Amino acid sequence: MSSPITRGRLNRLTGQFHEPGREAMYRRDIAPRVRRESCLALCVAALVFGMFAISDYHYVGMGTPLTLLLAMRLLVVASCLVLALMIGRWGDYSRKAWLHALPLWILATGIILIVPLRPESLSTQVTAVAMATMAFYLLIPNLLPIVALASLYLSLGFLASAVMVADIPAVVALRIALLLVMANAVGFFALLRLEKLQRKQYALLQEERSQNQQMAEEIAHRKSLEAQLRRVAERDVLTGLDSRVHFMTRAQDLLQRSQFDKSPFSLMMIDVDHFKAINDTWGHSQGDRVLATIADTCKRSLRPQDVIGRFGGEEFIVALPDTHLEDARMVAERLQRKVAELPVREDMPDHRLTVTIGIAGGHEEATDLPSLIQSADQALYAGKHGGRNRVVMSDEGRAKA
Ligand SMILES: Nc1nc2c(ncn2[C@@H]2O[C@H](COP(=O)(O)OP(=O)(O)OP(=O)(O)O)[C@@H](O)[C@H]2O)c(=O)[nH]1
């Protein structure tokens, strides 16, 4: 549950947010809707106010009072329509609340002026004023304090002109006053409730949006962490090659595809010769540099579709899809040559950098990756025993070749 602080506290009398920034944001948010509704409400108000011209003739007949009444109605109707047009174009509710308030004052003045121009119809005018008051509060969108002031002006002005022009007894004036107080009270509290409800709804929506935003950020953060972790798990930090686990996954896929396509598949195990001696003589940092350089050299010498990984310590593994054993041997010999040509003499004088490579191959359905690795490893072992710095094919490979 969110606290009233996060939702935004509301003023008890106006229904507006206490925080001016939040109130301004709310008004900005509802501005387009208020603009549309104001235009529509003013057009309807102009129509209704103009419509009563029909009853003017009935009450005052032909003559100067009718002319004055019609002129006044025309003025009010025209003002309402012009203001509706202006609000539609420039009526930004968040910055020009006065423009939205102006029609209320004009309509109120028009209604008040009917009393001296048509004093005989006072009883029907009381009903019309009460209804106009409610319409001010509920139908023409505006801020509660502005509406309350305009309605009060309408009520007091109407009462004053009724007392002065229509010469009504005190008791009738009191009844009209009570009726108008009631209309104002009902309108005020209805609009206050509406203002509060709308702002509460807005605050809840904002809260929901911010929670969604937070959630989206959290998800993005987790995804990036996940991707980072995956990258760490898939890469060997020292050489930048595939980690053993990731290599196994990729090589497995390649082998399966080769078996499906019935295309050749070869596997190489590369081991640096006398690597321990490098560590012991020139230190582990130099050993690390040598491993990274050899890894880089091998990677660059392979095709993009080949996959190379670090299998362990100073041992690398390469999967060669679509490659016959004889071709794999040529690749291995090329790698062997490139490693031997690496310029390490300055850092490690009197040391010949060499690698021994074991090769195995096969794409028959019975062949699986672990047994291929085992065969390549056996060939590598044989190469080491045979004096190192050589390329050796597994027994099955030799038989096939
Ligand atoms: N600098 C460095 N050394 C490593 C790393 N991983 C393994 N080693 C070392 O590599 C050496 C491998 O030694 P051996 O298994 O005896 O192999 P070798 O000396 O190359 O001998 P042969 O393979 O028989 O030619 C060990 O001393 C390991 O400590 C590494 O990441 N960095």
Automatic annotation (TrEMBL):
Xref: InterPro entries: Diguanylate_Cyclase, GGDEF_dom, MFS_trans_sf, Nucleotide_cyclase, Rev_trsase/Diguanyl_cyclase
Alphabetized UniProt keyword annotations: Membrane, Transmembrane, Transmembrane helix
UniProt domain GGDEF: residue ranges: 263-396
Database matches in Gene3D superfamilies: 3.30.70.270
Known catalytic reactions: 2 GTP = 3',3'-c-di-GMP + 2 diphosphate
Swiss-Prot/TrEMBL GO biological process terms: cell adhesion involved in single-species biofilm formation; negative regulation of bacterial-type flagellum-dependent cell motility
GO molecular function term, any single one: diguanylate cyclase activity
DNA repair as UniProt keyword: no
Transmembrane segments: 39-60, 66-85, 97-116, 147-166, 172-192
PROSITE patterns associated with the record: GGDEF
EC class of the enzyme, as a word: transferase
Cofactor names: Mg(2+)
Any GO CC annotation of this UniProt entry: plasma membrane
KW Amino-acid biosynthesis (keyword) present: no
Documented EC number(s): 2.7.7.65
Pfam families, sorted: GGDEF (PF00990)
UniProt-listed NCBIfam families: GGDEF (TIGR00254)
Protein name: diguanylate cyclase
Source species of the chain: Halomonas aestuarii
